């Protein structure tokens, strides 16, 4: 009947009709429906929404994989164990230079593009609002340049 499950326990998924939320697969079950002239079986996944724990059910064709837990997180943990991260202390001069770099037109446009991509990826208005604020910052930056 079923040769495989498309998603496994702890996989992160989203609905195909993106609602902007991530869900973790916490279980699954097989359901068989029998009608007068027809019968079919389906896999129903039990999901938990990441940010608030809301539990919902969904069929396989309603979902798309965001990440496979073992492939994604397991790979990160393996990489972290294979090397050490060195942290260097920054001088005050480096910090001041970094702060002034943060206000260049290029860096402002980079932040704007990042927020726009995040808004598109997660379908989240928070990132749209942040992008508009960065755009306002760019306008203020250009006004300062024209005054000098």
What's the short story on this structure?
44% of the residues lie in helices and 25% in strands. By secondary structure, it is an alpha+beta fold. Helix 3 packs antiparallel against helix 4.
Topology:
Layout: E1 12-15, E2 23-34, E3 39-49, E4 55-59, E5 63-67, H1 69-82, H2 92-101, H3 105-122, H4 125-147
Antiparallel strand pairs: 1-2, 1-5, 2-3, 3-4
Helix pairs in contact: 3-4
Task: Describe this protein's structure.
There is one protein chain. By secondary structure, the protein is of the alpha+beta class. It has 2 domains: about 10-75, no CATH class; about 90-145. The protein is about 45% helix and about 25% strand. The chain is built from 4 helices and 5 strands. The chain has a 5-stranded antiparallel β-sheet. It is elongated. It starts with 11 loop residues before the first strand and ends with a helix.
How many domains make up the 3D coordinates?
A: 2
| Structural category | alpha+beta
Helix content: 40-55%
Mean pLDDT over the full residue set: 77
Strand sequence of the main sheet, in spatial order? 4-3-2-1-5
Large-scale geometry: elongated
Radius of gyration of CA atoms, rounded to a whole number: 23 Å
Query: What fraction of residues sit in β-strands?
Result: 25-35%
Keywords:
148 residues, alpha+beta, 2 domains, 5-stranded antiparallel sheet
